[in-house]
Design brief:
The structure is a single chain. A 9-stranded mixed β-sheet has the order 10-9-8-7-11-6-12-14-13, with helices on both faces. It has a 5-stranded mixed β-sheet with strand order 2-1-3-4-5. Helix 3 (about 80-85) runs parallel beside helix 4. The longest helix is centred in the C-terminal third of the chain and has 14 residues, at about 265-280. About 30% of the residues lie in helices and about 25% in strands. By secondary structure, the chain is α/β, with parallel strands linked by helices. It contains 12 helices and 14 strands.
Length: about 350
């Protein structure tokens, strides 16, 4: 199963909104077939592994990180391929909560006389596909917050200067992140001050929708985002008081405009996430300033963080920090990361991990 989980991870960025899945076919102590879901719409991991195993799959054990599908989607059901191959036993790490599967795949295999075992390394499998599971359970994408800061916790100087806090190696990691997510989200001030392009360079497996949270629809037509909107999609999420003329000028320039009409800014951000979830976006990367990140933090919407800490000092009472908002009053209630990873990137410290849930 550990090998199947390693194979599954190879699909990251290529298969979403599908889950990442890996599969190994075992005859005795010998692995006779391996496969993983390589791309959305392509063959599933079980079909790949069975194709490698060929006739030797008869009587073998199939080990897979997620319950095999039993419905016709973009590909035929994996359960039928397993039954036709003569597999004797199936070991799945977890059930697939997708409504058209959700135990039915395992039941179909058992009805065909195949021995079924579920739960081996389930915690690791659930961690692997946490974004997929969140999207199914909540209708919201997995939210990854990213920021760079100095050693004294500043994301910009008192004048707003921030290029560049992190070094080139750190910025290369950010481009890799952009290349595997469905959307990159920033706020109005970040768009105004930094004038970012928000593309992955070099390109990754996905082309992210570039999203600007801009309540007044004030994004400049001269910004890099608007000037490239017809080449790489841009969505501007505006509030209920944005003028129709300002919305129209952005649409005329090639931007999509989404009106979020909830009463509070936090609720409007949730409306945006709900819309991205309706589009089956699985992962979104938030590169916004302190205000946007603070809104997500206060609403407990952040699932994962990637932080780049530069060995620099800025000082300044009014210098910006990565997370604004209301914050947490008592250190005992501070959010913690589970199993944080730390590495050195040419002098910068790169820390990333998932937010621990109760």
């Amino acid at each position: 199963m550990q090998r199947a989980l390693e194979l599954a991870l190879r699909g990251q960025g290529y298969v979403e909104p599908n889950p990442m899945v890996g599969c190994v076919v075992v005859q005795g102590a010998e692995i006779i077939g391996e496969g993983w879901h390589r791309r959305f719409g392509g063959p599933h991991a079980e079909v790949e592994a069975l194709a490698v195993a060929g006739p030797r799959a008869a009587g073998a054990t199939l080990v897979v990180t997620l319950e095999p599908c039993c419905h016709h989607g973009k590909t035929p059901p994996c359960t039928q391929a397993i039954i036709r191959a003569g597999i004797r036993r199936v070991v799945a790490a977890q059930r697939d909560p997708f409504p058209q599967v959700n135990g039915a795949g395992l039941a179909e295999l058992q009805a065909a006389g195949i021995e079924v075992e579920v739960g081996l390394l389930e915690e690791q499998a659930r961690r692997l596909n946490a974004p997929y599971l969140k999207l199914l359970a909540t209708g919201r994408p997995w939210v990854i917050a990213k920021w760079a800061m100095t050693l004294d916790g500043k994301s910009a100087s008192v004048t707003g200067s921030s290029k560049w806090i992190s070094n080139a190696q750190s910025r290369a990691v950010v481009h890799q992140l952009r290349g595997r997510v469905d959307a990159v989200v920033i706020g109005r001030e970040t768009a105004r001050v930094d004038d970012p392009l928000l593309t992955a360079r070099p390109p990754g497996p996905r082309t992210a929708l570039r999203v600007v949270v801009d309540g007044r629809a004030s994004l400049s037509l001269e910004s890099q985002l608007v000037r490239t909107a017809r080449q790489v999609p841009v969505l501007v999420a505006v509030g209920p008081h944005a003028r129709a003329a300002d919305r129209q000028r952005l649409q005329n320039a090639g931007c999509e405009v989404l009106v979020c009409d909830a009463r509070s800014p936090a609720d409007r951000v949730d409306q945006l996430l709900a819309e991205l979830g309706r589009r089956r976006f699985t992962n979104v990367l938030v590169e916004g300033g302190g205000r946007l990140t603070g809104s997500l933090f206060d609403a407990r919407q952040i699932d994962e963080v990637h932080v780049f800490i530069a060995p620099k000092l800025l000082g300044g009472t009014w210098a910006r920090t990565p997370i604004a908002g209301e914050g947490i009053a008592d250190i005992a209630h501070a959010l913690e990361l589970e199993d944080p990873q730390v590495q050195c990137l040419g002098g910068d410290l790169y820390l990333h991990g998932r937010v621990r849930r109760p």
